[in-house]
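input
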Amino acid sequence: MTTTDQARPELQKAIQEFVDSGLAAGVQVRVHDEQGEWAGSAGVRELGQSAKPATNGHFRIGSTTKTFTATLVLQLVADGTIELDDPVADHLPEYGLDRRITARMLLQHTSGLFNFTGEYYPDGTFAPGIPGLGKEWVTDNRFHTYQPEELVRLALSKPARFEPGTGWSYSNTNYVLARLLVEKVTGRAYAEEMQARILRPLGLTGTVVPDASPDIPEPHAHGYYRYQDAEEWKTVDTTRFNPSWISAAGDMISTTEDLHTFFSALNSGRLLPAPLLAEMRKPDPTIGYGLGVFVEDTEGGGTLLHHNGGFWGWAALMYSTPDGSKTLTASVTTGEAELDMVAMSEAFEKVKQKLVTAVFHDERTG
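output
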């Protein structure tokens, strides 16, 4: 049974801070812990309106999609359909991939492949990929359909970041290749495999693999993108857009309840055999990224597993303890804050950590 906002005032206060900070138009949060289940929301569903976001609302989960995609690939590894450390080129010869690149490297972002959404380099330079920023995205590309093969070939036309397996760099290209790998070895569409293997067995009726559809099921809040056009700041409603530009690296739609059900099932061992779940949780030493999931060692000696996601107008949070017994899932929709991407990310991180600390206090402090 879901409790009311008033039953967990510390959590309601934490999510209200998201809104009061000016970073968010609306927030919805769901927590499962030793006190039971709690769901709450703050802010507004739509700018100019007074209704709060629905606690069972649908939202775009961004890169949280990667945990679903990684789980799907690992299920195929469990079946013996894919070998985790064999060359991906054996299955996808048409792309001319470096034969050292394996499925493990795709899932862990250690392939070195250029990120088709653009690369930020340590010296501060940016190498653009597909149009995904500012006025150009809003006016020209928001409803454009990209094919996954197109995204991969764009990335492969650019220099690699490093030799396969010698570094770590977050690249959406890896997960689009993972989608193509799934489709090649199963002979079925990625969305069909996701439905058959994960969504349907878990009863995730609020979760959607949209492909190129711009629609989002009701109920839902609205997301907004604030961008600068010459000297003028403009706000556009980005609730509807074609997510094919991000594909299996971040296109899915879900709910806080479905994310809880999925992540709890994954971490409690219902979706993968124990040896593969252990492989998933082996973090790269550079940044603590396993196979589609971040592995965070806390100051209190505990561990948190998570994968958040976000893009213009939307952000998602998904956290769990290793046994799946305590979870935090959330959606944030942005409003009219006039901040650049770096400032927005830094401010969002501070507020997010307050919420995570409020839920996982014992794990963080011991």
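quick obs: The longest strand covers residues 24-33.
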